[in-house]
Amino acid sequence: xxxxxxxxxxxxxxxxxxxxxxxxxxxxxxxxxxxxxxxxxxxxxxxxxxxxxxxxxxxxxxxxxxxxxxxxxxxxxxxxxxxxxxxxxxxxxxxxxxxxxxxxxxxxxxxxxxxxxxxxxxxxxxxxxxxxxxxxxxxxxxxxxxxxxxxxxxxxxxxxxxxxxxxxxxxxxxxxxxxxxxxxxxxxxxxxxxxxxxxxxxxxxxxxxxxxxxxxxxxxxxxxxxxxxxxxxxxxxxxxxxxxxxxxxxxxxxxxxxxxxxxxxxxxxxxxxxxxxxxxxxxxxxxxxxxxxxxxxxxxxxxxxxxxxxxxxxxxxxxxxxxxxxxxxxxxxxxxxxxxxxxxxxxxxxxxxxxxxxxxxxxxxxxxxxxxxxxxxxxxxxxxxxxxxxxxxxxxxxxxxxxxxxxxxxxxxxxxx
Length: 417
What we know:
Layout: H1 2-14, H2 19-26, H3 30-43, E1 46-49, E2 52-55, H4 56-60, E3 65-74, E4 85-98, H5 102-169, H6 174-209, H7 233-253, E5 259-272, E6 284-293, H8 301-367, H9 373-407
Antiparallel strand pairs: 1-2, 3-4, 4-5, 5-6
Helix pairs in contact: 2-5, 3-5, 5-6, 5-7, 5-9, 7-8, 8-9
């Protein structure tokens, strides 16, 4: 029974992940979770009213405030203003009508803050996704390199055994055999280096996805469906940060303007006088007030705060403009690199065709003793290097596609097929 379960689970374990699955796993790692918690921490201040998100903690500070209360008192010396015992209940409502624009500036600041947090999360996702894309196609290139190296070793080993027999028969020299043996050893060293690079890629993917992975070939980047360009998420983060700083500056300047508020208080009195001459018969009272306040002078404190916040805004704005221009250049370079990568494929294919033809010619001459093994070994190496180069060029093109998508401000994982 145990063997049955093992045989059932083994194919599932060996089944590799394609690029889409690797990216999905990476977008669930600890960094993404941490960023999500950060966004949710800010969103926890939000309440949804008629599909319009608002920061409840900020908005509620500007909504009318209603306060109710009561108190009971008892005195040993009754006077006209202090009865023997009394109970007073009251209800108060207060509302700020105008505060110099601080309310709207505060709303705008927090809206920009939450939007910036969302874009920061999206930027992190895209950064991780493009990293996984690079690892995936670099892995495929390394595997193709390994396969070519193994085939080269196989042919070199066969030639080594063949020349060893000739050496034993005395029909060739030891230096010919040593050259082949040296090439076999160098190829084996190259193989070990490639295998180390493959394991490094797998370890890096393990680190990003938080689990061991096996990689399945065949994934492509659907570059043809790319629509118009948008700002990258990391640039949008700066844009919202810039808006937040500007709103903060405006909010800090609001104290230079007047503040108008409404206040209404209703009181209920239950006075118990021993001396009825003191009792005025008033049981309730309502007081309505309109307040106006204007701070005319604060020794420049408000102006200094505003200037400081405005400088922060200008600093972020300069960085935003710089990074936005740089992003446009990065996109143009990515497109240019893509065009070059397409040319590399056609060039690599032509090189493979030439290397294969040259190898076949030299191999025939080598077998007939018309060329030495130096020419043969060079032709053999060129052939397998050309085979590997074609596949590397194809995989490199996919990376270039992903780079264009990334720099176009799109979600990389949406273009994987």
